[in-house]
User: Fold this.
Amino acid sequence: MPAKRPRYLPDLLCDSHVHTRFCGHATGEMEEYVQAAISHGLRKIVFLEHMEEGILTQAKTWLSEEDFDRYFVEGRRLREQYGSQIEIGLGVECGYNEGHGEALLTRLGKRQWDRIGISCHFIKLPGVPEHLNMFSKQAENIDLARRFGPERILDRYLALLHQAIRQLPGTFVCHLDAALRRVPGITLTADHYRMIDGLLRTMKEKGMALELNTSGLDMRGEPFPTRRILSMALACDIPLVLGSDAHKPADVARHFADIAGFIPSPLESCP
Ligand SMILES: [Zn+2]
Ligand SMILES: [Zn+2]
Assistant:
């Protein structure tokens, strides 16, 4: 029997977060992601396509219900074709929008998702007609965030994410501290950490996991979330899942070989 993995380590042979060209801002067919995962020797890959509801923006970055129909058809075909080599999960990254929780619940309830990742990408700022994409690298979005005040935006982001965790049937929380990641010099305050602590407690109550998202290594030399937040999660005995957040097939399982060094030991995480 293979040695049992310590509970605090995520499954290193499962990439739980990849996108495809369906969302409009990623490239590559689903099949190319499956082939990349097989070439990395993974035992499982989980597609986690973007769902959003009621977001006001010119730049749509998510799937329509018709896209999700096509996604399931193709996903099932790939399961038939590659099922003997790899397990294929069909999941969703459900973005939160205050006032649209019921609509999201209805849409989530219509399908059999392998996993439901919870995130919050967009925020409505007073006096601004469109939602701000807090994950965007566009200069105008970064300027707007700076003008409005990153600290205030992060207060709001964490409050919304906590609402999402309470309201939606999530399996795990995606890239917890990645909002405004493109804004230089961003830091979390003591108040933000208190909010994160509260949010982790709700996750624990609901039996949710926390994503260790390796895209952070490319952006800031450290995964999302930071070691400090990982320690807080492990102290609450919240399990970790590993995701590359690949938006191109070449990024499947990125940095998985180095990730163990970024995970604090349970001893370190004891409060
Ligand atoms: Zn995306
Ligand atoms: Zn995301």
Q: What stands out?
A: The domain at 14-264 is CATH 3.20.20.140 (TIM Barrel). The first strand starts at residue 14 and ends at 18.
